[in-house]
Amino acid sequence: MTVNDGFQEHFTPRLKRFESNLERALPRADEAPTSLHQAMRYAVLGGGKRIRPLLVYSAAEALSLEDTRVDALAIAVEMIHAYSLVHDDLPAMDDDDLRRGQPTCHVAFDEATAILAGDALQALAFEVLSSDRGLTGSAAARLRMVRGLAAACGSRGMAGGQAHDLEAVGCRLDREALETMHRMKTGALIRYCVVAPAWLCEIDGARRSSLHRFGSLVGLAFQIHDDILDETGDAVETGKPRDSDRDRNKPTFTSTLGLETSRELARDLSEQALGCLREFGPQSESLARLARFAVDRRG
Predict the structure, then answer these.
(1) Which residues have C-beta within 8 Å of that of residue 35, sequence separation ≥ 6?
(2) Which long-range contacts (CB under 8 A, 24 or more apart) does 62-68 make?
């Protein structure tokens, strides 16, 4: 992560605690089947910005919920995210050799093991979310979180967005079509991270709507900035070669709108997201930092 307005210092204690919890939630590397469990650990523990867990914790903070009540939620969304990256990198998808500056899972192990690792991580995410005792709340709230996560990563969410992405290779998409694709592929899970903590506590509909809109705006801003970094980023910081999307002839915001217009749009979305937090007061500072980081990061 790039140090940004004290970003790293602000989140380091929470990240250290999360990494410890995440490691414990995974099967041991020496537990059979060892190759599968090693691949799962490799995919999840190999670094990353941990934006999605931080969004979970920051939304909980804005709602005066303790971290312990959403640990399982944070772990589950990161496992879902990791599984999606493993599958996105496969030869049948984006065929990437590098992820976060390291060999992708199918390169480090093999293609079959990577597929199984992704499958197992998705299943483990739902196991954690449905059974963790720290996630206190009503049975209805837990069911809503499980159902919501399934929707966020299914055919109307992340998987559907990836299908659109594959179909769009070699095509020109307008802004509306790009936004629709990325609200599914990237935005659905990010939006879920912000809204799901609200289901654990009684808050009014207006505040839930504000969190929903915040998540939608940040998710889209995050993706636009990813497209910008694909053209302008340092490969050492991004962990992947520059122009990888252009080389695959994938439509992006920068290819559709141009670099400067994309920058302006990402910053405008981030500012709109900040406006959604006014009613939460100082408790929303962590969410505000993440909204800024979405468009300021260098990797």
Answers:
(1) 109, 113
(2) 62/211, 62/277, 62/280, 62/283, 62/284, 62/286, 62/287, 63/197, 63/198, 63/200, 63/201, 63/203, 63/280, 63/283, 64/201, 64/283, 65/197, 65/200, 65/201, 67/14, 67/17, 68/134
Where do the domains of the chain lie?
7-296
Taking only the tens place, the pLDDT of each residue in 106-117 is: 999 999 999 999
Distance CA 251, CA 133 (A): 44
Q: How far apart are CA 298 and CA 225, in angstroms?
A: 9
Buried b (16+ CB within 10 A) or exposed e, 177-214: ebbebbbbbbbbbbbbbbbbbbbbeebeeeeeebbbbb
| Topology of the domain covering 7-296 | Farnesyl Diphosphate Synthase (1.10.600)
Q: What is the pTM of this model?
A: 0.94
